[in-house]
């Protein structure tokens, strides 16, 4: 069975995914905040299933059965319109032979209307999403390793205590530290590094289990979070600063995206990132390690542009010509007129390429 798991971007949302990865081997994760991003991620899931090659499984009786799909949505409430859209898309694919199941596990009272309309929408306002996910999956599927239950169960209770704010619940103070850790662990941008950003947070969350049972574990964990972040990013906490460790980790990941993220502006070759922010150190490090690029460009969700060069390109002239901006030869900025926000990198790149190809229409 292929599982496509969409969840929220807070402690509870990632807690749901920490749980589900211990029940399914063939699972793909997606995350969304509320608003337009929910529908964007739902479409990504539906398109992935729709275009998935129809693998066939041979049973001992030599009967062919179609691949099964589970769309698992946790810690997110869908509006009636979003729920209806999901149901209609799935119904269409079922008519085409896809075996798809939907399971939405949520605890937000704002999902009550949708929960009354759709049988697959499970709502329980007395448990957090992580606890609902864990206890629901335990009833239906076996854990990949039964030994994981020993540490998963207390982790789930800790997340439940802080997410629904049970001050006398198990691990409440610990949960406050874990909540802050997830909220502030953004060293790897989730739009550029979707998988790595999620893996980073899940890795930190799993490391929390080693502190949860200790006396004053929340204090020990709080003291060690910064060090654990350095380790999770692949650095030596005793030999390098977080800024250098994070920058090197980011540059290594960006360097793996050279083909996907390359831009051409006249006779200059550039690299485009989306929503990285604060690129001065990052861009210079990237350009020094990747000398085939003449400039580095980052666009934020509002269409603001940051440009950096390393002596091979006048980005102030580029910013003035294409983005109504200016600055220095090696550091400049501007703004994309009529910018259309998107959660997909490809959409952002297309907008920039159109500007470079048709500067008079920018």
Question: Could you please describe the fold and organization of this structure?
Answer:
This protein has helices at 11-20, 36-50, 80-95, 112-117, 129-140, 149-163, 172-184, 194-207, 209-212, 217-232, 242-255, 258-261, 280-289, 315-323, 345-357; strands spanning 2-7, 27-31, 56-58, 64-66, 68-74, 99-106, 121-123, 262-265, 268-274, 295-299, 304-309, 326-327, 331-335. It is globular, with a radius of gyration of 23 Å. It is an alpha/beta fold and 362 residues long. It starts with a strand and ends in a 5-residue tail after the last helix. Residues 55-59 have low confidence and may be disordered. The longest helix is centred in the first third of the chain and has 16 residues, at 80-95. A six-stranded mixed β-sheet has the order 8-9-10-11-13-12, sandwiched between helices. A five-stranded parallel β-sheet has the order 2-1-5-6-7, sandwiched between helices. Strands 3-4 form a two-stranded antiparallel sheet.
């Amino acid at each position: 069975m292929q599982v496509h798991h969409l969840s929220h971007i807070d402690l509870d949302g990632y807690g749901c995914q920490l749980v589900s990865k211990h029940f399914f081997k063939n699972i793909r994760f997606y995350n969304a905040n509320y608003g337009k991003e929910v529908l964007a991620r739902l479409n990504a899931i539906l398109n992935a299933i729709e275009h998935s090659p129809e693998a066939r499984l041979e049973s001992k009786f030599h009967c062919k059965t179609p691949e099964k799909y589970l769309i698992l949505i946790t810690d997110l409430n869908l509006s009636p319109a979003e729920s209806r859209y999901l149901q209609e898309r799935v119904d269409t694919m079922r008519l085409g032979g896809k075996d798809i199941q939907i399971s939405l596990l949520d605890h937000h009272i704002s999902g009550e209307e949708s929960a009354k309309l759709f049988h697959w929408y499970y709502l329980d306002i007395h448990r957090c999403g992580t606890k609902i996910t864990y206890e629901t999956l335990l009833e239906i599927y076996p854990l990949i390793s039964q030994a994981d239950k020993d540490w998963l169960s207390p982790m789930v209770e800790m997340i439940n205590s802080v997410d629904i704010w049970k001050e006398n619940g198990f691990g409440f103070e610990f949960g406050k530290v874990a909540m802050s850790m997830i909220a502030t662990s953004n060293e790897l941008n989730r739009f550029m590094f979707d998988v790595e950003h999620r893996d980073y947070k899940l890795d930190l969350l799993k490391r929390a289990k080693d502190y949860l049972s200790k006396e004053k574990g929340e204090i020990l964990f709080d003291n060690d979070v910064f060090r654990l972040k350095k380790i999770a990013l692949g650095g030596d906490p005793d030999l390098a600063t977080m800024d250098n460790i994070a920058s090197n980790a980011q540059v290594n990941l960006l360097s793996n995206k050279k083909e996907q993220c390359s831009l051409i502006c006249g006779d200059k070759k550039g690299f485009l990132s989306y929503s990285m922010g604060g690129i001065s150190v990052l861009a210079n490090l990237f350009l020094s390690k990747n000398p085939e690029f003449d400039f580095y460009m980052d666009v934020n969700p509002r269409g603001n542009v940051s440009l950096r060069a390393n002596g091979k390109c006048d980005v102030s002239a580029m910013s003035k010509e294409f983005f109504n901006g200016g600055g220095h030869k090696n550091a400049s900025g501007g703004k994309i007129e009529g910018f259309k926000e998107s959660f997909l990198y490809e959409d952002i790149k297309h907008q920039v390429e159109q500007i470079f190809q048709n500067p008079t229409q920018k």
